[in-house]
Task: inverse folding
């Protein structure tokens, strides 16, 4: 059944699937946002424990989503995997290091005899939430601004910039996207914590979190505006029906106009995030995370769709346009994409059990009593 | 593919060995302890006895400490194929990427989702749902092992694929062949069984220490019984699957088999070397005895490798130089054909680029005759096809000897525990403390046999290791090598200190 689909349809399906995984990762970055809020919103050990224990039941979901994002790109677009990881070497290595140190920090932070002390593990969490997310944003930014690589006849990558990927962070556009993601993660983190924590006797803590939600949206705005305006006015990469890549004026504006659904996703997404912040910061609701989360997913989808659809190379090379990667020249074979699409049929089931467990675990809010027991992080 | 930086290959290999071996300190414990925790909790739910809950929770605490660092050391492996082995990733990504993605979809989320319930759900979900979650973590962990081992097995025995000269890569033709390859089945079963053994030894070690210190005696005794039963079954299972692995190796990777058996001259009725000391200046060309000393079991190798006491098992010399009598095609011949394939592929590429379709078709036809030997075309001399014999041989024998010893150990331990005379047999408890570390080494040795024994191939017969690397200066890989060494060592020290402290604290009172 799936095997009868056109090759290009499968390639598009896989770009959509990769975009969904990437966008869900951006939503789940509420964990990283909460990590960078820790030192600001939690004024004593109990408040800190509330934050850590609340995020502690969710961090693995974010982490696993990142790993799946890597695995899915490897399987569906192996040329992207080999080009980007092998070429933009250092930016990926630095991102991975921030996730390596994150992975032990929840479990080890409060354990007696933990060698480094709680504050070092908290610093690890902060680095993961700030540097890690910033660099991920910068890497995603290169989908629009291009990278410095060439591919030879055997599709081997050669990176032409000595910083090997880290140069991405020195573009104002990429940097702005990165900073927007960092602040958006903090907005989401505040919303999630408001949703999950029982603030009985902790009114000041609640006020700080709600204020952080509002303030971080304000911090995020200039970066968001810069990214959006740039996207509308900048020249972009496009390819014609022979696959020849060239610079196209206002390419991304054209994409949004050519794909009004994507423009719709972007606008609805942004409105939802703002609405989530409004009801969290002003209306004292604890449901903001659902609007902010869904909004972030929609914005993420719009970003990935703009980068990869409408004859746009999603991983352009600015030093050799013809080395640019498109969803059509970077993908696996028809056969492999078919197999992977069958496997992807279980994704709804996976999402269902995650949602079910989430509901079970978050049915009762996290209380001070919960975090003072033996099993707390 | 002309500019190959050998220095870079060495560092990339060193880094893979470092990160994989660090990861493999923690994974065996995850594979086995997850099941052991599920057993303990199942007993608790069935009996309603709070003592078992206390036992389950104690081992879960240690499981959690180990699990966290297992995740930390694991993430890099998902991306290291891209960073250091980018050419490999491109050439086999069409096949190799799939199991990694499947692993993420079907296995990692099971672990990640239910781990949170296992640790934070005691007061949030029902008893049965909690037990279900613990089982899901165990199943998820072992499922993730399945998929990564399927990927690894494909490197040992590439099936279900063809080489596409247009894209210069290998492409998948049959997913089921990849998934159900005999190597995948024997590797999955054998590797998980080693994890079960190491985990059983872990519980025996800590329980033995408690018994020697006369602390938490009841918990320690109960734990030992469950662990010894599990360990004994796992040893039997490891023996059977290990036997199957060797049988599969004989058909798919005869050079690996010859290396870990120290067999230079092939023969019918080949003896199994139970133990031996290798001669260091042995060359495959000379006919000297490869051993300075050895203990042999007559005819057993032929029986194990071919299921026939009179079967012929080729040695290193036969595989390198060929053996006409036994119809073994040597590397010397394969190299000639491989060189032709490499040249024809380049001619095909050039003709295509020049737009000369006729010449391209001719070159392709010639290429197809020899394409099976493409990988051998990158060799300079036939002896390159021999893996490091010393390391493979000693690792293999270390693994097998202690694997057998552990079987008897668990059996005796079980008898003594059953008679409830553990405290009077201090020697078996002291052995239990040391055996955990030897078990860890044996598990690592198993991977050395598998991976060093595969050299010089990254994809057996098709892709030599040095062809697979990324085109970057060795200094980058060197730098990240030391970064990983530093961070992983620091985290390991933290983990061990935390673990020791938790063992000292012991189970909480209910």
Result:
């Amino acid at each position: 059944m799936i095997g009868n689909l056109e090759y290009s349809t499968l390639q598009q399906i896989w770009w959509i699937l990769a975009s969904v995984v990437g966008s869900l990762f951006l939503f789940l970055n509420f964990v990283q946002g909460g990590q960078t809020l820790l030192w600001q919103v939690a004024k004593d050990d109990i408040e800190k424990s509330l934050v850590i224990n609340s995020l502690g039941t969710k961090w693995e979901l974010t982490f696993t989503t990142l790993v799946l994002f890597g695995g899915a790109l490897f399987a569906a677009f192996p040329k992207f995997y080999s080009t980007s990881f092998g070429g933009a070497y250092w930016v990926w290595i630095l991102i991975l290091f921030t996730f390596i140190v994150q992975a032990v920090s929840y479990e080890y932070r409060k354990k007696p005899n933990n060698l480094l002390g709680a504050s070092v593990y908290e610093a690890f969490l902060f680095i993961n939430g700030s540097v890690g997310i910033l660099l991920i944003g910068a890497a995603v930014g290169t989908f629009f601004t291009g990278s410095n690589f060439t591919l030879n006849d055997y599709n081997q990558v050669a990176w032409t910039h000595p910083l090997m990927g880290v140069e991405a962070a020195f573009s104002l556009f990429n940097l702005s996207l990165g900073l927007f993601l960092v602040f958006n993660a903090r907005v989401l983190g505040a919303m999630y914590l408001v949703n999950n924590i029982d603030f009985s006797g902790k009114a000041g803590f609640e006020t700080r979190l709600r204020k952080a939600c509002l303030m971080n949206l304000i911090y995020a705005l200039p970066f968001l505006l810069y990214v959006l305006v740039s996207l509308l006015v900048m020249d972009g990469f496009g390819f014609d029906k022979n696959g020849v890549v060239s610079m196209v004026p206002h390419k991304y504006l054209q994409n949004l106009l050519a794909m009004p659904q994507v423009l719709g996703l972007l606008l609805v997404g942004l409105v939802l995030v703002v609405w989530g912040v409004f009801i969290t910061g002003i209306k004292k609701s604890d449901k903001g995370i659902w609007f902010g989360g869904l909004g972030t997913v929609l914005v993420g989808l719009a970003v990935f769709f703009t980068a990869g659809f409408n004859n746009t190379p999603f991983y352009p090379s600015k030093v050799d346009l013809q080395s640019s990667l498109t969803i059509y020249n970077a993908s696996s074979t028809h056969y492999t994409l078919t197999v992977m699409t069958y496997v992807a049929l279980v994704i709804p089931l996976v999402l269902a059990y995650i949602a079910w467990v989430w509901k079970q675990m978050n049915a009762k809010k996290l209380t001070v009593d919960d975090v003072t027991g033996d099993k707390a992080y | 593919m002309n500019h190959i930086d050998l220095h870079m290959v060495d560092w990339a290999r060193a880094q893979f060995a470092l990160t994989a071996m660090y990861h493999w300190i923690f994974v065996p414990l995850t594979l086995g302890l997850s099941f052991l925790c599920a057993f303990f909790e199942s007993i608790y739910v069935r009996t309603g006895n709070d003592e078992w809950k206390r036992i389950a929770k104690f081992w879960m605490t240690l499981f959690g400490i180990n699990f966290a660092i297992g995740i930390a050391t694991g993430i890099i492996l998902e991306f290291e194929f891209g960073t250091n082995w980018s050419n490999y990733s491109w050439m086999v990504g069409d096949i190799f990427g799939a199991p990694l993605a499947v692993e993420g979809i079907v296995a990692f989320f099971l672990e990640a989702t239910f781990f949170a319930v296992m640790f934070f759900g005691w007061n949030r979900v029902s008893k049965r749902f909690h037990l279900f979650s613990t089982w899901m973590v165990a199943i998820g962990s072992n499922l993730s092992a399945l998929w990564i081992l399927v990927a690894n097995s494909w490197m040992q025995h590439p099936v279900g694929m063809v080489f596409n000269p247009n894209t210069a890569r290998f492409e998948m033709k049959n997913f089921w062949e990849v998934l159900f390859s005999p190597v995948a089945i024997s590797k999955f079963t054998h590797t998980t069984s080693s994890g079960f053994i190491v985990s059983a030894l872990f519980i025996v070690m800590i329980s033995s220490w408690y018994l020697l210190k006369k602390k938490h005696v009841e918990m320690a005794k109960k734990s030992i019984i469950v662990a010894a039963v599990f360990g004994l079954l796992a040893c039997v299972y490891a023996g059977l699957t290990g036997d199957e692995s060797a049988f599969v190796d004989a058909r798919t990777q005869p050079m690996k088999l010859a290396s870990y058996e120290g067999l230079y001259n092939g023969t019918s009725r080949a003896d199994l070397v139970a133990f031996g000391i290798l001669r260091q200046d042995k060359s495959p060309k000379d006919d000297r005895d490869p051993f300075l000393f050895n203990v042999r079991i007559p005819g057993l190798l032929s029986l194990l490798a071919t299921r026939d006491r009179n079967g012929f098992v080729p040695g290193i010399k036969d595989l390198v130089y060929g053996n006409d009598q036994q119809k073994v095609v040597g590397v010397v011949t394969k190299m000639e054909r491989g060189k032709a394939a490499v040249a024809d592929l380049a001619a095909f590429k050039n003709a295509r680029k020049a737009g000369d379709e006729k010449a391209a078709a001719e070159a392709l036809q010639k290429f197809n005759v020899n394409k099976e030997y493409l990988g051998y075309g990158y060799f300079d001399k036939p002896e390159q096809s021999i893996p490091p014999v010393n390391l493979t041989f000693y690792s293999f024998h270390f693994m097998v000897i202690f694997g057998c010893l552990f079987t008897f150990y668990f059996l005796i331990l079980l008898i003594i525990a059953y008679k409830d005379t553990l405290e009077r047999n201090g020697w078996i408890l002291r052995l239990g403390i040391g055996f955990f570390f030897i078990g860890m080494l044996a598990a690592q040795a198993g991977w050395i046999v598998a991976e060093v024994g595969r050299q010089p191939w990254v994809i057996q017969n098709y892709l030599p290791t040095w062809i697979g690397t990324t085109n970057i200066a060795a200094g980058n890989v060197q730098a990240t090598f030391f970064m990983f060494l530093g961070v992983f060592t620091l985290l390991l020290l933290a983990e061990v200190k935390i673990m020791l402290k938790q063992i000292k604290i012991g189970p909480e009172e209910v």
